[in-house]
Amino acid sequence: MRRSALAAIAAIGTASLFLAGCSKADDNKNENGTKSAGANAATKGVVNASDKKGGTLTYEMSDVPDSFDPGNTYYAYMYNLSRLWARPLMTFQPGAGEEGNTLVPDLAASKGVPSDGGKTWTYKLRSGLKYEDGSPITSKDVKYAVERSNFARDVLSLGPNYFQQFMAGGDKYKGPYKDKSAKGLSSIETPDDTTVVFHLKQAFQEFDYLVAAPQTAPVPQAKDTGVDYVKHIVSSGSYKFQSYEDGKQAVLVRNENWDAKTDPLRKQLPDKIVVKLKVNPETIDQDVMAGKAIDLAGTGVQAATQAQVLTDPAKKANTDNTFGGRLVYMAINTTVAPFDKLECRKAVQYAVDKVSVQTAEGGPIRGDIASTVLPPDIPGYAKSDVYATKDSKGDVAKAKEQLKACGKTSISTNISARSDRPQEIDAATAIINSLKKVGINASLKQYPSGKYFTDYAGVPKFTKKQNIGLEMMQWGADWPSGYGFLQQILNGKAISQSGNTNLSQYDSKDVNALLAKAIGTQDNNERNSLYTQIDKKTMDDAVLVPLTYFKVLLGRPTTYTNLVSTAAFSGQYDYLNIGVASK
Asked: Which GO terms describe its molecular function (predicted)?
């Protein structure tokens, strides 16, 4: 998922979790001699709960994040991790499964107060808030953070642009790097140092979810250096940066000016937190299973490790298999010929053998076969399969029929995938084999995930020039609602020239209007029915191929404390309060 960011989760019973070797997990001992909590335990509660302080906590990742800058990131794992140094107005309560979807105030003292039918939202900050240097955090810093993250897309292009789309006058404001006036965006008011008021151009009934994004974490304007701010981030959280080496490593230490009295959520347990980048995926698996690290990206163990885990009761007992509220799909680029024609897109829909894709991803434990845009655990989902084929294995005859209706007997195109995600590469390869059977010849183009959206798949000019008609994608909700899932991948207004996540470049007047209507609708049932309509319209237009409703198999390090798989961050462990157990 691009983030994908914030998503819902459904806990799975351990009885149906694993394919082989299902002995009692509780009979197994960890390497340090302690009893295992059992397979899937972190989807039901906090594993190894502890308030013990001290030690070094290590995260590892096979590539690099898009950015550590809270105003310039859009991956779920960075939304999750960034809360250690960046406190947004709202965030999600640590808790297992759906409990993790509960919104709670963070920098704000309470939830937003709506007025004017949901067009105006007011937040009061907690008192006594300070940055790492001891200077006070004010409402002006929150206002500035939103301005820099949403209105300077030529400088900071990686995060979503909801505020730019919905703030009154947002289409005219040039951002703080071009507009040097002290006033800034007039529709964000700061009547005093602890109050921030957002004036929207239309009702937005889910605004509390929106301000839970790290884009509302305060940034002192005097310390902002644009894209280089990532090198010297000023912390508002419980940890601060001791060092940052681009593409290699980041080291976090306690922020001595963080005050627990202003923060009921964070515990500040480890002495140090190390984030290692560009680590071999198999090495990450080994370190996780040895209790030496956490897989930062939360994408789960590799195929070879999965096979070992599923046949070893002791290893299996230290894993968590969860739905991630995510969809694995292939975007069909509607601006790249001949996929600007509906029939050519339908040919792709019928051609794909989804079982082969599921197998390439690691089998059913990695996801159920998908047929809709919305996953089953997101409000608005309704069971449907517009392009049903026997056993979901594709239909060559129907695909060729649509190809003929499109005026083609063959197509040559390219398919993009992330080079550091082996399962995504394998899934793309399976799709290529399916397409070849009907006369669609696709060549694989691999790009690193850290630049996938800034330089490659998320750059419309690049994809058109390179004839990239098909793009591998994984997406989770920015927040657990139909709107939080659909807006950034389907709304034409979300298309941007870099950092774009509407990879299909889908710009439907009907879908755009339905999204706008939904977010202004107060009644939940009515709002959810609109999300169902959007899903149906999108599938009728054949702009993306749903592949699987993502599941992740996480290795659970036995030497770390407070591990809980949360709905809010795609089934990942909640990174807010993980500690280090005594040896």
From this structure: peptide transmembrane transporter activity
Domain that holds residue 86: 56-275+558-580
One domain, residues 495 and 390:
yes
Q: How far apart are CA 67 and CA 448, in angstroms?
A: 14
In a domain, 362, yes or no: yes
Q: Are residues 448 and 423 in the same domain?
A: yes
Cα within 13 Å of Cα(20), Cβ side? 7
Same domain, 569 and 512: no
- Specify the pTM: 0.81
Beta-carbon contacts of 548 under 8 Å, excluding residues fewer than 6 positions away, are 327, 328, 354, 357, 358, 361, 366, 367, 368, 369, 370
Alpha-carbon gap, residue 126 to 484, rounded angstroms: 27
Tokens standing for residue 17: 């979790």
**CATH number, domain containing residue 438:** 3.10.105.10
pLDDT tens per residue, the chain (583 residues)? 344 333 333 333 332 333 333 233 334 555 545 567 899 999 999 999 999 999 999 999 999 999 999 999 998 999 999 999 999 999 999 888 778 889 999 999 999 999 999 999 999 999 999 999 999 999 999 999 999 999 999 999 889 889 998 999 999 999 999 998 889 999 999 999 999 999 999 999 999 999 999 999 999 999 999 999 999 999 999 999 999 999 999 999 999 999 999 999 999 999 999 999 999 999 999 999 999 999 999 988 988 899 899 999 999 999 999 877 789 999 999 999 999 999 999 999 999 999 999 999 989 988 999 999 999 878 899 999 999 999 999 999 999 999 999 999 999 999 999 998 888 999 999 999 999 999 999 999 999 998 999 999 999 999 999 999 999 999 988 888 899 999 999 999 999 999 899 999 999 999 999 999 999 998 989 999 999 999 999 999 999 999 999 888 999 999 999 999 988 888 899 999 999 996 4
Q: Are residues 574 and 519 in the same domain?
A: no
How far apart, in whole angstroms, are the C-alpha atoms of residue 312 and residue 255? Answer: 41
Q: What is the DSSP letter of 296?
A: T
Q: What is the DSSP letter of 135?
A: P
Do 545 and 564 lie in one domain? The reply is no
